[in-house]
């Protein structure tokens, strides 16, 4: 309803900024060219992308950095 007060989206969306491996803050990678989607980077574990179909972060192939 248009008159209903809605709360801000929190919780699940805040998890996108956290690395699923170590929990540290990740930075969002800006879109380049035909790249579509939400991409994130963890300094320790490489690049991740948000998968709309699975509603989860997934590691991009070949991006895991050695520890």
Task: Tell me about this structure.
The structure is a single chain. Helix content is 6%, strand content 25%. With 67 residues, the chain is mainly β. It has one domain (12-59). A 4-stranded antiparallel sheet has the order 1-2-3-4, with no helix packed on it. A hairpin with a 3-residue loop joins β2 and β3. The longest helix is centred in the N-terminal third of the chain and has 4 residues, at 12-15.
What attributes does this structure have?
4 strands; 1 helix; mainly beta; four-stranded antiparallel β-sheet; 67 residues
Q: How would you classify the helix and strand content by structural class? A: mainly beta
- What is the helix fraction of residues, given as a range? under 10%
| Global shape | globular
User: Secondary-structure element sequence?
Assistant: HEEEE
Question: Helices and strands in order, then pairings?
Answer:
Blueprint lengths: L11 H4 L11 E3 L9 E4 L3 E6 L4 E4 L8
Antiparallel strand pairs: 1-2, 2-3, 3-4
Brief write-up:
With 67 residues, the protein is mostly beta strands. The protein has 1 helix and 4 strands. A 4-stranded antiparallel β-sheet has the order 1-2-3-4, with no helix packed on it.
């Amino acid at each position: 309803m248009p008159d209903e007060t809605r709360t801000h989206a929190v919780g699940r969306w805040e998890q996108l900024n956290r690395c699923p491996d170590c929990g540290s803050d990740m930075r969002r990678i800006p879109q380049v060219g035909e790249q579509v989607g939400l991409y994130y980077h963890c300094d320790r574990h490489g690049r991740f992308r948000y998968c709309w179909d699975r509603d989860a972060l997934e590691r991009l192939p070949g991006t895991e950095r050695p520890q």
